[in-house]
């Protein structure tokens, strides 16, 4: 079955440190991958998607089909990056999103 | 920036009661979704809706659940006879199905079944 795995429930780093939030997926077709972010008391909002290949708020993510991964990276974390991050998959046969369990990123001063 | 609006933000109900959760989509969006997140668990897809029909539904979306767009603006999720295990955050999402294919989420309704 299609699945998204985010192995870390909590990732704590100091301000200025590099960040990598891991996401692995299982799907044999052509997936579309997303990262959604949820800041405290706010709604889920799209951070980035693999097909746009852009950097948002300093974050990047590359789809690695060989490793079935879509890890989110930022070279220098900021305190305002503290939030819940959800990786999500859309299959080529459907429009529903399949979410990972989320990783809470805590950036300490 | 346009937003998806959900009401109420928090709904408390007794087990066995009916609840209706409401969502106002972004104007000109025609594709609608409901997701839920039980506390401590993943965000799970419930149902997608387009052109007054269900496009896709999950195993969770059983006969106790229904969706409709009664007045051309609100998109509603009805739970006929709530159970304790229906307690969760319910998120509405809408999609313009334009070239970006992005789902925009509402802030959610927290449903507490007592």
Strand pairing plus helix content of chain A: what structural class? mainly beta
Topology of chain A as a string of helices (H) and strands (E): EEEEEEEEEEE
Beta strands of chain B, count: 11
Please give the alpha-carbon distance between the first and last residues of chain B: 36 Å
Biggest sheet architecture of chain A: 6 strands, mixed
Ranges of chain B where pLDDT stays below 50 over 5 or more residues in a row are none
Number of strands of chain A: 11
Biggest interface, and residues per chain? Answer: A-B, 19 and 25 residues
Question: Approximately how much beta-strand content do the residues of chain A carry?
Answer: 35-45%
**What amount of the residues of chain B lies in strands?**
over 45%
Mean pLDDT of chain A: 93
SSE order of chain B in H/E notation? EEEEEEEEEEE
Q: What is the radius of gyration of chain A computed over CA atoms, rounded to a whole number of angstroms?
A: 13 Å
| Proportion of helical residues of chain A | under 10%
Termini separation of chain A: 41 Å
User: Describe the biggest sheet of chain B?
Assistant: 7 strands, mixed
Mean pLDDT level of chain B: 92
Please characterize this protein's 3D structure.
- The complex is a heterodimer of chains A (109) and B (114).
- Chain A has strands at 3-5, 10-14, 19-21, 24-26, 32-38, 45-49, 60-61, 72-74, 83-90, 98-99, 103-108.
- Chain A is mostly beta strands.
- In chain A, strands 2, 5, 6, 9, 10 and 11 form a six-stranded mixed sheet that branches.
- Chain A starts with a strand and ends with a strand.
- The model of chain A has no long low-confidence stretch (mean pLDDT 93).
- With 114 residues, chain B is mainly β.
- Chain B is 0% helix and 51% strand.
- Chain B is built from no helices and eleven strands.
- In chain B, the strands form two sheets. In chain B, strands 2, 4, 5, 6, 9, 10 and 11 form a seven-stranded mixed sheet that branches. A four-stranded antiparallel sheet of chain B has the order 1-3-8-7, with no helix packed on it.
- In chain B, a hairpin with a 7-residue loop joins strand 9 (88-95) and strand 10 (103-105).
- Chain B is globular, with a radius of gyration of 13 Å.
- The model of chain B has no long low-confidence stretch (mean pLDDT 92).
- The interface between A and B is medium-sized, with 19 and 25 residues.
């Amino acid at each position: 079955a299609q699945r998204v795995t985010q192995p870390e429930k909590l990732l704590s780093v100091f301000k200025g440190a590099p960040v990598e939030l891991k996401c692995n997926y299982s799907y044999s077709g052509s997936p579309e991958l997303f990262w959604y972010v949820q800041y405290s008391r706010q709604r889920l909002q799209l951070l980035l998607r693999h097909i746009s290949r852009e950097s948002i708020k300093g974050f990047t993510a590359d789809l690695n089909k060989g490793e079935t991964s879509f890890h989110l990276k930022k070279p220098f974390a900021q305190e305002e990056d503290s939030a819940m991050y959800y990786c999500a998959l859309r299959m080529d046969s459907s429009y529903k999103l399949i979410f990972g369990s989320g990783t809470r990123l805590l950036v300490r001063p | 920036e346009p937003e998806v609006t959900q009401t109420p933000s928090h709904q408390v109900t007794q087990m066995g009661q009916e609840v209706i959760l409401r969502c106002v989509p972004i104007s000109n969006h025609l594709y609608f979704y409901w997701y839920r997140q039980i506390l401590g668990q993943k965000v799970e897809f419930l149902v997608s809706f387009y052109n007054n029909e269900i496009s896709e539904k999950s195993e969770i979306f059983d006969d106790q659940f229904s969706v409709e767009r009664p007045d051309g603006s609100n998109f509603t999720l009805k739970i006929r006879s709530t159970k304790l295990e229906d307690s969760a955050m319910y998120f509405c999402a809408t999609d313009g199905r334009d070239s970006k294919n992005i789902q925009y989420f509402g802030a959610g309704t927290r449903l507490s079944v007592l």
